[in-house]
Amino acid sequence: FGSSHCGANHFCLGLLGWSGLDFPPNTPGATTLYSNIVVVNRLRRMMRAPRYAVSVPALLRSSASVRAASTLPAPQFAPVKFQKEDVEAVMKELPAFNFYEIKEPVPNPYQSSTLDRSILLDPPAPALVAPKTEFSKLENGLKIVSVDKQGLTAHLGLYVSAGSRFETSANFGVSHMVSMMSYASTAHLSHLRTVKTLEQLGAHGTATCTAGREEIVYKVDVMREFVPLVIPLMVGNVLFPRLLPWEVKAAHKKVKEAQGALDADAMVSELLHKAAYCNNTLGLSPFASERSMPYFTPETIRSFMLDHFAPERMVLVGVNVAHSELSKWAMRSFADYNAIPLKKRDEAKALYTGGDLRMEGSSPFCHVALALESPAWGQAELASVTLLQSILGGGSATASGLGAGMTSRLNTQVVKQSPYVESCAAFNTSYSDTGLFGVYGVAQPDKAGDMCAAIAKCLTGMTSVSKDELAKAKAMLKGKLFRQLDDDCHLMQDLGTQVLLSGRYGSAADFAKAIDGVSEADVAAAAKKLLSSKPTVAAYGDTHTVPHYAAVEAALKA
Q1: 300-312, pLDDT tens digit by residue?
Q2: Which DSSP letter does residue 532 get?
Q3: What letters, b where the CB count within 10 A reaches 16 and e where it falls short, cover 505-522?
Q4: What local confidence, expressed as pLDDT, does residue 403 receive?
Q5: Which of 333, 365, 414, 552 has the highest CB neighbour number within 10 Å of its CB?
Q6: Within 13 Å of residue 448, how many CA atoms lie on the same side as its CB?
Q7: Whole-angstrom Cα distance, residue 48 to residue 347?
């Protein structure tokens, strides 16, 4: 990449295949001694080299951005410039951290303290600042979004626009491979040191990486004072992973473990997507399989990351962290390194085919999903379709009480009408260029046919919605939107997904306004459009009474 300075070469050493034991060659102060100050010294080395000016191609406008709804506000991303900083001054900002903690057990001085008495000697004054969503962007194109709710636990997420829909026949399952190699050896930390550092920070149980159909997400929950230590560690996963052959080989066994961990709900989701998008894009499974083993290699993973892991396709999200801190440490994590250059990629539009897919499984029940094609994220009909989901609702034979959907159509017309139906619920999943709307039900095997007929009747009845029913659905949906703001993990997911898919962010208030603007005619029109598409049927478990695809199709046209 046209530079001989050691900091900028770390990208080449990491993703282009250097496989040393612990440090890249010629790294100043490289050592293999496991001392108490090694981790902090490595952070020091990360910022020692002078700033390298990275030449970044112009940001390519993704198809998702073009499809974003114009009614959503376009956020103003504050630019964050790369800066040359004094290392000693930067090190003073790091929180106190000891890699090793060897302490003698001592009695708990707070054992008799009650919850109504503070154990803090100098309790900090509360910062009564209303949470607000803030946006910024690094010079290399990485978007940064945060909301500080003054919580003690920071939720960090790094969202990458890469997933199974971008795979080919030469690398099926590579997204899952990338996730399985997360938090392993990087150019600065070995696998052992990465794991031990997360353990010492109390984040070893919350550090995850999940591969989906359109995104790969790295997440870490940590006490907010340790955010400066965790951000460089997260960025190292996408900037300079080592992908050591023995670590990749050790991950092979995780493929079978992941397949075995899939429950009935996950299997229905897999079958549904494979049938709805047969042999294309979203129909490709985000899980690696046995056929992926021959090319589960460092070269396959490295090639996929080089094609898709450019910072322009990433969003760093933080909840309960100051935006200035998040932006500053993200800048420092990238400042001295060549990020992966942005490559133009072929983004084939998802082709909805509809279809039927069934699999016999070990479940004693019959799990059935009936789905139709729904609008993509950002389209105007999305509010109407989401209201239809609320109107259909759902229910369970065992669940009752507030928020259990006791008065919804599916509960009153399907669950309560048969003692053989265990549960039934409507769903709507939106992607960047398509979506799936439908109903998922679980019943005793001998009565699965009756349940499917009742579900089809509910779906065809969507074209008729009363004024009172729509008003109730609006109130329920808006209440759910605002209640979800209290869930930090859900808020982080919402921020990351919206900005990654469209480059825009709509708050709960924005969506509430869109919901209020939906009329009965809009809902009826959306229902007719849904029913005009070919149905998709997916069944798992004991499927011997599930109706033929043609019978389901005829019932939805009746």
Answers
A1: 999 999 999 999 9
A2: T
A3: bbbbebbbebbeebeeeb
A4: 60
A5: 414
A6: 26
A7: 39
Query: 3 is written with which tokens?
Result: 């530079």
Contact 384, 518 (CB under 8 A): yes
* CA–CA distance, 499 with 438 (Å, rounded to integer): 26
Q: Residue 284 carries which DSSP code?
A: S
β-partners of residue 218 are: 158, 209
Is pLDDT at 332 greater than 70 in this prediction? Answer: yes
Q: Are 126 and 294 in contact (CB under 8 A)?
A: no
pLDDT mean over 91-106: 83
By DSSP bridging, strand 78-80 and strand 133-138 are: parallel
Are residues 156 and 222 in contact, defined by beta-carbon separation less than 8 angstroms?
A: yes
Q: Each residue of 348-390: pLDDT tens digit?
A: 999 999 999 999 999 999 999 999 999 999 898 999 999 999 9
pLDDT of residue 29: 32
CA atoms lying within 13 Å on the CB side of residue 409? 24
pLDDT at 401: 61
Contact present, 441 and 431 (Cβ < 8 Å): no
Contact between 242 and 18 under an 8 Å Cβ cutoff? The reply is yes
* Residues 408 and 536: beta-carbon distance below 8 Å: no
Tokens (6 digits) for 448? 């699965």
**H or E, element range at 464:** none
d(CA 355, CA 281): 15
How far apart (Å, rounded) are the C-alpha atoms in residues 524 and 356? 27
- The amino acid that residue 45 corresponds to is R
User: What are the φ/ψ torsions at residue 120 (nearest 5 degrees)?
Assistant: -85, 130
Q: 495: which 2 tokens? A: 């921020």
- Helix, strand, coil shares of the chain as percentages rounded to 5? 40, 15, 45
Query: What pLDDT does residue 306 have?
Result: 96
Place of tokens 């509910």: 458
Measured CA to CA, the distance from residue 211 to residue 309 in angstroms comes to 13
pLDDT at 137: 97
Task: Write down the mean pLDDT value for the chain.
Answer: 86
Q: Nearest CA to 381 among 525, 532, 282?
A: 525
Task: Measure the CA–CA gap between 296 and 16, rounded to whole angstroms.
Answer: 17
d(CA 546, CA 539): 8
Q: What is the DSSP string of 392-415?
A: H-EEESS--STTS-TTSHHIIIII
- In angstroms, how far is CA 62 from the centroid of its own chain? 19
